[in-house]
Amino acid sequence: IFLIFYPERGQKFSGKLGCCGWLLAIISLIFVIGLFPFTIFMCVKIVKEYERAVIFRLGRITDRKPKGPGLFFILPCTDNFVKVDLRTVSFDIPPQEILTKDSVTVSVDGVVYFRIYCPISSVANVTNAHSSTRLLAQTTLRNVLGTKNLAELLSDREGISLSMQEALDEATDPWGIKVERVEIKDVKLPQQLQRAMAAEAEASREARAKIIAAEGEMKASRALKEASLVISESPSGLQLRYLQTLNTIAAEKNSTIIFPLPIDMLQSFMQK
């Protein structure tokens, strides 16, 4: 009769449960049949599409494959089961005070996404899979960031997240957990360090601005030198330049007009 509910498993269970286990299972089955149909409500269980049930018979896992989704049967006196949710779960890593490789104290928090891919391992190998994963994520965050300096922490968040994911996935694999994604949410720096970094950045920008201005002055002086050489080849060219300057000043409607005096007229006086 037992094989009606669990066909082709009698030999497998007999090796695991032993004589006493078989006797209790048969007594429980007789009790179920004797009180049918009242016991049908105790035997039939339902799990949802995203859930699986791990059945224990007399403290032993009856099969290496979980039940569900849908209907399944248990013996009310000898069996109990644990439901396992297979959906992806996310949780926030609380802000952790971390000392970086270059001795800078920062506060870092993150988020982890994981799911259970082996319900039996998550029930049999660890007391609380979700809580254990959360604690391990906090420790892994401190261990990984402790090997990075501040510049790497601020610029290479993607690489740090990937390193944390690989470390967590390897550690939680015996628990039947798959870590799908790890993200660094925020990096908080001390106020004094923020002011120092801002002052350093401002000084760096000012230095670059001075260098650019000096390069511009040098290029302008070279251009003026080349222009003076071209004008010196033609004395009348300098007079035309004077007239252009006068035209520019007159166009702005200024009350004061400077009339350029040709330098050639003063050369005779300068020679005397």
UniProtKB/TrEMBL annotation:
This protein's name: Stomatin like 3
SMART domains attached to this UniProt entry: PHB
Band domain segment(s): 42-201
InterPro entries in UniProt: Band-7_stomatin-like, Band_7, Band_7/SPFH_dom_sf, Band_7/stomatin-like_CS, Stomatin_HflK_fam
Compartments (UniProt record): Membrane
Highest taxon listed in the record's lineage: Eukaryota
GO cellular component: plasma membrane
Key words of the record: Membrane, Transmembrane, Transmembrane helix
Residues passing through the membrane, by range: 22-47
Main location: membrane
Family: Belongs to the band 7/mec-2 family.
Stretches assigned to coiled coil: none
Gene (name only): stoml3a
